[in-house]
Amino acid sequence: MSKYDQADFEARKAAMLEEIRAVMDDVEELYNNGRERGEEEIAELKESVGGKLDAAKRKLRRFEEEAADSLKRNSAYAKEKFRNFEEEAGKRIKRRAKEADKAVHEKPYYAMGFAALAGLVVGVLLNRR
Description:
Order of helices and strands: HHH
Helix content: over 70%
Number of strands: 0
Shape: rod-shaped
């Protein structure tokens, strides 16, 4: 996720949390003042809270959908980067193998000496155990 996407995500999350807090404050007010207010005022407050709650639910659903879409986009981007890395690594390995093959053909005695030395080191290391 880019810095812009992350900042936008955090800002929208904060706004949504603020709306949820406002709804919860209205619910608390409804609860605290339920006995004191007339039925008409309670009905108005219930309608207001219901509307805010529905709006918050819609925003939450939209936010979840956008977060899922963002995750899918970033996942596709990561797959593409890995595929490019894999291709580049394959090319480099092939190039190095060709260079090694060329060096062995040009100086076979060096290659045999190096192989013998490497075998000796591996043998010594394995016999230590």
